Amino acid sequence: MTNANEPVNRRVNYLNARYGVRSWLLTTDHKRIAILYLIGVTFFFALGGLAAALIRLELLTPAGDVFQAEVYNKLFTTHGVLMVFFFMIPAIPGVLGNFLIPLMIGAKDVAFPRLNLLSWYLFAIGGLTAFWAVVHGGVDTGWTFYTPYSTVYSNGWVVVTAVGIFISGFSSILTGLNFLVTIHTMRAPGMTWMRMPLFCWGMYATGIIQILGTPVIAITLLLVAAERLFQLGIFNPAQGGDPVLFQHLFWFYSHPAVYIMILPAMAIISELVTAFSRKPIFGYKFIAGSSVAIAVLSFLVWGHHMFVSGQSVYAGLLFSILSFMVAIPSAIKVFNWTATLYKGSVSYQTPLLYALGFIGLFTFGGLTGLMLATLGLDIHVHDTYFIVAHFHYIMVGGTIMAYMGGLHFWWPKISGKLYPEMWSRVSAWVIFIGFNLTFFPQFIVGYLGMPRRYHQYPEEFQVLNVMSTAGASILGVGYVIPLVYFIWSMRYGKAAADNPWGATGLEWETPSPPPTDNFPDTPTVSGRPYDYRTGREEAIG
Amino acid sequence: MPFFPDEASSFAGNVDALYGFLIAVTAFFSILIGTLVVVFAIRYRRRSPDEVATEVHESAVLELVWTLIPLGLVLVMFVWGARVYFKITRPPANAIEIYVTGKQWMWKIQHTDGHREMNELHVPVGTPVRLTMASEDVIHSFYVPAFRFKRDVVPGRFSTAWFEAVRPGRYHLFCAEYCGTRHSNMIGWVYALKPADYQIWLSGGVPGESLASAGAKRFIEHACNTCHGDQAGARGPSLTGLFGRQIHLQSGLTLIADEAYIRESIVNPQAKLLAGYPPIMPTFQGLISEEGLLQLTAYIKSLSSAPAAGGAAQTGPALAPPITPERKSSKR
User: Fold this and answer.
1) What percent of chain B is predicted at pLDDT more than 70?
2) Co-location of B72 and B121 in the same domain
3) Which domain holds residue B172?
4) β-bridge pairing B96-103 and B106-111
5) Considering CB atoms only, which of A237, A240, A282 is closest to B58?
6) Which residue of B has its CA nearest to A315?
């Protein structure tokens, strides 16, 4: 492997402890499972990204001239299904959550190591099933599977795709369960709840949603499959069903699912901001508490997806105000991250660049979300590119920025190697610029009235779409560069120190990469997290 | 290239004012956070590798401030948004009625006087227009960006919504809810005409029979009149004067007989049974097209005192013999 020509007395770590395919595919080591997830989610991210590239290619011109309408519809469905269910949801918990939670709380592994491996297999099987469905048969329902189109009218492989998502849903449930139990029961001596890194708090809140929300989407997709196969008349109005019932069930999971995607991202940002300001996080309890508040409130806002579907005016009012409420804990986080930089010792390493990019883009994306919670305004922008722009600011500008930042931050720990600093900064800037050029014009074209999921569009929308496509090309390059240098660094990168950033946290007290058992001796924790006061015991003020 | 859509309906200005407020809030906080992040990052940049940050104590007051200010702001947004929403959702009483059927992948429009259009809708400026919409297959969404008007058209029910055009012109009509292969072809134009031009448009073309009389034909075709005639001892309730009236149900509930009730009582008669009548009516689910249901609804509405303002011309008088006597009560 990577160290073939290095001295034989090299430290044994989780990467070189055992070799061979079996040692990876049958591993119960949370760190190796994290690597398996890394490979899996990168694969689906690449495929989903490819679909996005083809979508942007089609939208370069108003006419539907690159693909047929049917192909285009399958492309945006593929993009949505793969990105949401097989990248965004599993990415941070699967890769960084798995790798870091036991390390951060001073444990040898997660609570249920074999269940953890099963989670990965369910993810992989579910993902490949859905992938097979979208590529071989094609699905044209959009990732939202709205009835009765999905259950009666679509010709695509709806059932197979639903089965894929259903299977991987169990992966999500088991992962959430594993993390919850791990955090509850396996913290090192002295690691009280209020001493726990905020990353773990974020993953804990995520786990709650995964466990409570995912069964609902599983049931909903089963009902879709049942109606499609056996004409049951659950959602199909021709048989007395209610198509809007589907939307309630779908969004009861899929809105909280947005927080499955963003809470782990926020968790990463809390770690990055403190580490690169070399300063305790500002408002630890408020950030930790807001994660839990978001998890709880996220279950009460699903109806804001149905402001124009004919739900009652009063239901609309209720869901509107609750949606506003969920913005408050997010705002608290943003203010606390910003305050953490104040009087810090700020170092512009790549992970911080991503974190600062996250703060800006998430703030903007979140504020545009307020527009969607505003009843009178949502009616106009609902189902337009405004929505597309909004959720990409949260998902791409938020979650993926954070994921990239986290990957860079912990890469030395994961791989034992350093990535090339210059290239990583270049790619961070390329991603930031490409992202904004892609998605900012979509706000404008959305408010102008361009509906989403349009294969062709009126000519007056073209300039903005060309900008968007140009931005997407830049964004694509921005993602390819890290893919190349991460792989490159595994072989050629400089060996990383145990704590290259001078960061706090138990994961930095163990070697890079860590040994299979994480810590030679169980660590004990005696103080608050993010204690950067080294040599400054005399507190000021 | 436009950067802002036309403001062509009575509530477009309200929506845009709201949007302006939210843009201001968004810009303020984005710039505030962006500036603070950049200023802090530069001002407090690490100057030596072993530099340690100054300790800053947490402040409950600060936390409270940046919780309460956003809370106050979102409450303003909520109330303002709700007020606009109420305006958008409550149709004025003097609205003219237009009936819309969505199907993969076209919009079919029926005017009460019998004018039919396909993927085009002509409306007068300055008069509220109330749309009663049905879908023959999947969910569609009737969207006119220039009017800030959007409403999902859900199969199995009538969806109603209204707008009032205020500026003459030709505006995009889109289907906003993904509805299958040719979703992006389910588009058309809304023509907002000055009242005089609208009258010219109305007088042109060849209006078939009025919607109500088409409905009256169907009423006989489906033998509705055998039970719902006004003769004494009829097995079903008389429908004269039914629309808009408060009715008492077998279940003890009362409701106002609106379009949704009429539609449901045709396709699923047992759902809301009128007090005092046995559950003998068969279902017409799947037997009558959505357009037919709209026509029947228009007909039953015409049996109630006055036809909607703006005019349901009552042409074709003697189409439904058992019930014609009652139609004298309608104007003209």
Assistant:
1) 91
2) no
3) 96-203
4) antiparallel
5) A282
6) B82
pLDDT tens digits, B163-197: 999 999 999 999 999 999 999 999 999 999 999 99
For residue A535, pLDDT over 70 is answered with no
ipTM metric: 0.91
The partner residues of B144 in beta bridges, in order of sequence, read B149
Place of tokens 């309630």: A248
Q: Is the pLDDT of residue A242 over 80?
A: yes
Phi and psi torsions of B310, nearest 5° = 95, -5
Query: How does residue B205 score in pLDDT terms, banded at 50, 70 and 90?
Result: confident
CATH number at residue B133: 2.60.40.420
Which tokens sit at B285?
């689910």
Mean of pLDDT values over A333-349: 93
The span from the CA of A262 to the CA of A266, in Å, is 6
Is residue B80 located within the same domain as residue B128? no
The number of domains in chain B is 3
The answer to pTM > 0.95 is: no
Q: How far is CA A170 from CA A167, A202, A204, A265, A406, in A?
A: 6, 20, 17, 21, 25
Mean pLDDT (whole number) for A146-159:
93
Q: How far is B319 from chain A (nearest CA, A)?
A: 30
CB contact under 8 A, A343 and B63: no
Query: Which residues from chain A sit within 8 angstroms of residue B15, using beta carbons?
Result: 376-377, 379-380
Name the closest residue on chain A to residue B290, using Cα atoms. A238
* Amino acid at position B325, single letter: P
Amino acid at A362: F
Contact A433, A408 (CB under 8 A): no
Q: Which tokens belong to B179?
A: 């509805």
Instruction: Answer yes or no: is B224 within a domain.
Output: yes
Q: How far apart are CA A348 and CA A207, in angstroms?
A: 32
Cα B141 versus chain centre, distance: 10
Q: Which residues, in sequence order, are CB contacts of A343 under 8 Å at separation 6+?
A: A279, B44, B53, B54, B56
